[in-house]
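Reading a protein record of the kind used here takes only a little practice. Think of the row as the fold of the chain written in a discrete alphabet. A record is reproduced here so that you can trace the correspondence yourselves:
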Amino acid sequence: MCKVPYASTVGSLMYAMVYTRPDIAHAVGVVSKYMNNPGKANWMVVKWILKYLRGTTNKSLCVGGSSVSLQGYVNANMASDRDNRRSATGYVFTLGRKTINWVSKLQNIIALSPMKVEYIVVTEASKEMIGL
């Protein structure tokens, strides 16, 4: 069995995340922070992502329909990043049934309550929606 370099494996996952698979965006973003010095736990996460991708090769996003209303969906979780205790933010915007914009990232500030985490993500998503 040949050894695949960690950086090229994560790089391939980054390509899949950016261009075809928003469902793995958060996991790939987290594991990519450790590209310079990966540990055993990081490799376990990369393997998990690859197994997930292999198990979902027959899945796809279905888009269509005639409605043209702009809709947004937001979500956040409190202090999900164990390294610096920042919360994760995620939102997606659809026009009709087509996804036109999505984001999954860590929040810039550390919130002290779950309600503040939700306020932050709603505010960020609202600013993005105004731009759209």
Observations:
- Residues 41 and 60 are 29 Å apart (CA to CA).
